[in-house]
Amino acid sequence: MEKLWNGRFSSETDKLADIFNSSLPVDKKMYRQDITASIAHASMLVKCDIIPKEEGDKIINGLKDILQDIDKGILKIDNAEDIHMFVESELTRRIGEAGKKLHTARSRNDQVVTDFKMYIKDSILEIKRELKSFINTLLSISSKNLYTYMPGFTHLQKAQPITLAFHLCAYAEMFYRDLMRYDCFYKQINVCPLGSGALAGTTYPIDRRYTASLLGFADITMNAMDAVSDRDYVCEYLFNASMVMMHLSRFSEEIIMWASDEYKFIELSDSFSTGSSIMPQKKNPDMAELVRGKTSRVYGNLMAMLAILKGLPLAYNKDLQEDKDLVFQTESVLLQSLTIFNKMLQKTVFNKKNMKKSAMNGYTNATDFADYLTKKGLPFREAHNITGKLVSYCVNRRKPIEKLPLNILKEFSNVIEEDIYSNISLKSVVGKRDVDGGTAPSAVKKSISRLKKAIIKC
């Protein structure tokens, strides 16, 4: 296919250079955005009397036919430098000289960034749908487990008893923040660069706002040089994806631990587990491990984009061609990970008895014992010291605090009465934390209700 920029050159490009320079294998994914943007551009050229209406109609109809043929698999995308040149060359082949007028008042620079922003906008909406679905799964499971007790950890040491609902809602909050980030990101990216030209605008009397409105953009960019060289939105896309993957990876780590024989908190579905080629007893949490592993790839893509940009002068440089591959790879990993994790979690069985048993071990009610002493009038530091000695006593004798008789407890402090047992019971320890953000079922119910309403607005 003859290159559309060939007029300046007197000899052919080396074939190896052609292959190295071509982005078609990657950016052909944006064929729909490119054709849609070209239709809007042609419509604007007609509106502004830059090309005749009859030629504009030929261009628009020709573009629609190309889109239809690609969708049906009739037209194969190949033999071009990039998707933009493929579409324009195919259009000219079909409708003749009128096709050559499509590129009036635009450059590949503003064309590329417009197509890419359109693609990313669509991608954001898809990611938001997956995030909402995942958060709803977390909230649904939480609603059924308000009284499912389990240990809470700090430093991977048992700390205080909580509920499964409370634990899952912690992840729901993380993914809600991700959802809000994408919501804000969509508003930020929703400005149209088309009409910026190569870097300095155009001499034609175009109507950029008309084109932007046809393409569903809320506004237009206000500096042509920035518009064509800006890839902040790519970095933000990759950063937001990295945050989601980081949250999924943290969750994966816990799923892997909970599924182990040492914890036995959960039983993963056979449909989301794998076995061993040599050890017949194995049931491996491979989906969670893969999510954890793939997170590093998304991080790497973010760092690659930042490295590409760090030394680039204005305006456009060919280095920026690398941006799309990084985004497409990241999008694929992110959407696969969200979808598979969501389905895996929906089919996970929680072993409530083991969780409760674990919560009752490890002296997770020690803080409440100290609080009890404080409420009886002792300074907290003194109460803390007494409780620490009591825990040491219990550890040496392998007995939980609540199993010690009252006369033994009184040896540690004479303020202790019979009501100590009701104050340090599992139900009481969890139920008393009914402040906003606490683990009490009443507080978690409020959190679930708030999150359900909040995600609808994003």
The CATH homologous superfamily of the largest domain is named Fumarase/aspartase (Central domain)
Strand arrangement in the largest pleated sheet? 1-2
CATH secondary-structure class of the largest domain: Mainly Alpha
**Largest sheet composition:** 2 strands, antiparallel
Q: What is the count of structural domains?
A: 3
Q: Taking Cα atoms only, what radius of gyration do you get, to the nearest Å?
A: 31 Å
Q: Report how far apart the termini are.
A: 46 Å
Q: What's the order of the H and E elements?
A: HHHHHHEEHEHEHHEHHEHHHHHHH
How would you describe what is shown here?
The protein has 458 residues and is mostly helical. Helices cover 61% and strands 5% of the residues. The strands form three sheets. It has a two-stranded antiparallel ribbon with strand order 1-2. Strands 3-4 form a two-stranded parallel sheet. A two-stranded antiparallel sheet has the order 5-6. Helix 8 links the parallel strand 3 and strand 4. The two termini are 46 Å apart.
What distinguishing features does this structure have?
single chain; 458 residues; Fumarase C, Chain B, domain 1; Fumarase C, Chain A, domain 2; Ribonucleotide Reductase Protein R1, domain 1; 19 helices; 6 strands; 61% helix
